[in-house]
Specification:
Layout (H helix, E strand, L loop, with lengths): L1 E6 L2 E3 L5 E9 L6 E7 L6 E7 L6 E2 L7 E6 L4 E6 L8 E8 L2 E2 L2 E2 L2 E4 L3 E5 L1
Parallel strand pairs: 2-13
Antiparallel strand pairs: 1-3, 3-8, 4-5, 4-9, 5-6, 7-8, 9-12, 9-13, 10-11
Length: 122
Amino acid sequence: HVQLVESGGGLVQPGGSLNLSCAAIGKTNVLNCVGWFRQAPGKEREGIATMRFGGGGTSYADSVKGRFTISQDNAKNTLYLQMNSLKPDDTAMYYCAAAVAYSRSRCGDFNYWGQGTQVTVS
């Protein structure tokens, strides 16, 4: 079993920055892919960034490309999402997630989810 614990959300002004963290606890050796998702009220959940667990293979949604950066600290089993040039449209609950499967340069279904951290841009 793997537990994901996010932190770092908050209130920020437009144009500002935030750095979200996600600590992976437990049997992380089964993981092959990690990512960040978000969901705003009344909207569907959106996958915004993914990467191979351990590094490499980053992928971004067009809505955040050039503004957000996904990264990892392998020694700490911690995933990060650096968010710059934030806009009001980025307001949402942000979730980190992890997948066991990775095939053909794509993450499989995400098996583990964090509890979410709120980001408000206003």
